[in-house]
Protein 1
Amino acid sequence: SVAATVSSALIGYGFARYEFPLKKTFFVLMLTTLILPPQLLMVAQAPLFNQLGLINTIWSMVLPALFGQGINQAIFILIFYQFFRSIPKVLNESAEIDGASQFKVFYTINLPLAIPSIVIVFLFAFVWYWNDTFMVSLYARSIDTLPIMLQRFRASYETLYPSGSDASTINEGIIMAGNVLTILPLLVLYFVGQRQFTQSIDKTGITGE
């Protein structure tokens, strides 16, 4: 989640503030990652990760996030892109006149103003990475997350006690308890950052329309 937030901020800032060759082409390619299903992307990713020795390591999840190819990361880039575009360029130009470097302009002026976007992106990234089972089961099978363990338990229990047997009714209660444990960290995170979350939604302009 942290890697996705940091890289999305940098990529979104680059698209919003700089002009470079093939900018529109790269932007369109970034948007197409929203359309392509992960099952299609894994055809190219799986052999590459296998050659790099990333299978069954945490880096198979971290490296794509660092390079802007994490789970639903195009949405995060768009959030930062729209936010940085709304910041007046006069602020950057004033800092550059005072001798600030490009990177200093980014982390001393633009990044503090983007706190609402950072909160939104981090919370969404945390939820999506926490609930993900497809990518983890494909690239990081040695990592046991709560959703993965609950999924394995359900499959094992249904194998031992098929639907219709007397013991199958016990399965529902255990699964509900497992679901509560799975969403508990998300609930704690939301209640801790509820105020910042609602304020960030107002400031970033995200609506349900």
Protein 2
Amino acid sequence: MKKTVLILAVLLCSMAFSASVLAENDGVAATSSGKTVKIAGGTPGGADWWYPSPFTFYPRGPGYSRMSLLFDTLTWKDANGVIPALADGWEVSDDGREWTFYLDRNARWHDGELFTADDVKFTFEYLEDHESEFTWFDATSYIDNVEVIDDYTVVMDLNAPMASFLVDIAGNVPILPEHIWEGVSDPRTFKDAEAVIGTGPLKLVEYDSTTSSYQYEANYNYYDGKLLIDEFISMDVSNTAAALQTGEVDEVSF
């Protein structure tokens, strides 16, 4: 099961519902489905989950999920374990300290720029330079060096073996576009439209902190499966039961 399905499942109560509306990986090019999915996804009291960039999202599950619809990681997880995301495959050295990742050649950033190994190297170096601003978890202290072998191969040298590396680091760090973030000196205050350009299955159309609403549209150039929705909206509602009954929303997130 692909990330496009799994991420929305975190936002929704039903895995079956998310699988039926978000994505399938059948090799067919993405086309318009005309489908909009709305969820009641605000917090008690109307507080929101913050701006969904990698440096400003609310550092808990719902905040991370809203960011992860926009940004991909090298690996992801399903019920059976670690699966490919931006990395098609990987190898680890016998001593467990050198990880080689082979990247997806079809991935592009939302603005059309190519995703390459340079973006991966840049991401980890940028996080190290801005570790005080990236407060969600320690993403870089285990890594000694990141080396670009070619456009779609990158090697990470660890300072010690880490059994959970594929999940805790490769599967959690959102990869940043170098061509955007290389000019950003303060990532915590960077909230331009470019701050949410990722490689993920959806693009952010509008965010309103006053109403705790997030509006996304499909990324039809997504490399990891055909999208089955055109629009996804997370909003705050005063009465979730009534909103479900009237059809104002399709689901309620936890």
Protein 3
Amino acid sequence: MGELLIKERQIVIPGEELARGMDFLPSIGTLREGESIYSTKLGLASIKEHLIKIIPLKGKYLPIREDIVIGIIKDVGLSGWSVDINMPTNANLPIGEAVRDRVEILKTDISKYFDIDDIIVAKVLNVSKSRIVQLSMKDYGLRKLRGGKILKLSPSKVPRLIGKKGSMVSMIKEYTKCEIYVGQNGYIWINGDIKNMYLVEQAINLIEQEAHMSGLTDKIKNLLEKNKILKGDSNE
């Protein structure tokens, strides 16, 4: 019978033995040597039935098809846009994946649709073997975001911000009355009353610092409760 040597959400280091026996299976961030499974990364252990994986405490955004991302327009081309999605190279947004109009590209200044520094919600349509990302805005809810500001969170910590079934981000929205769009690339767009936006920023900073700690939900709730005088404020 196999032996599990770590607990759920325990911090582990590279080379640490996680489990013994063939009852457990290695996944992301782990490897098997003989009958033992070891960590290859610094991160949080995640155990689902008999599958063990490591969630990195820090890491670059690795795009996957259908990811919803927040992007910043960085360049306007003849037939599309270059978009910052928190990667070393910008993603491509072709005009055919962005607007419904039939556009004569030789006669149209497409900056009338999206211009430099505009913020958009898009999805990852395709990722090439060389990590070139193509985006699309042809789906429900994908659009340009007006006003507000961008915050950054380590992509590996985005699930902690969202919470189970959206519980964490819903709680933050409820207390602050801010609009919040969370990109799986670690960019978060927020909009609302200035004081409430600052409270959202405090909550996200706390998640960045303590995503690996237990009791995070209670800490976020306490932060929001201490500032509950802001609850109900709005920029409307």
Protein 4
Amino acid sequence: MSRDRFLVWDFDGTLAVRPGNWTAVVCELVAGARPDLGMTAERLRPHLQSGFPWHTPEVVRAPCSAEEWWRGLLPVLARAVQRASGVGDVEARRLVAGARAAYLDAKRWQVFDDVRPTLEQLRDRGWTHIVLSNHVPELAALIDALGLGDLITAVHCSGCTGVEKPHPRAFEAVFAAHPAARAGWMIGDSMQADVLGAHAVGMRAILVRSTHPDAPAHCPTLTQVIDVVGGPSVE
């Protein structure tokens, strides 16, 4: 059976999730070191709505090392702590210094129950799986730690490339490595980053785990993806 059929998957919110995401990471760190601050997700979340690379996908950044990437992110987290709690810059930076280790702790991540059975069945039907995600540079290692590495052929991560979905260059990098992927499907939970981004480069897309009236293909669970990619073309 040909292996030239590609499914390109988003990761966070599609294949796995860290409950509470970045807000939870920072809250946990602050609560552990300074419980007296009474930090809550409600206080912190409004201050984490900007500053991450994927908040400005129109900006293409130069590829950098993981250390450089995290050096650029920690001030964003520290600034959020400052604004939510009133502590000074030095203290805020101290409180978020452990963010990298906390975020990458595989024990805090949850792979959705339908992921492995779906990816295995699709693989057995001849599909090759690729991940394209706006994520931290260590995404490939995280995927391995979560027990999905044997199902994923390649990982394209914005933390390594400097290009965020829905920028066309994020998708074109996948096509450069796997030309047949353009005729495959992008599958993710974001209408903007995954569906519209894919359509802009001529790729079909499926919106999963969320809904949008303009999504031409929508699957509440990954199990239903099997029928969509195996059935009539959905443009």
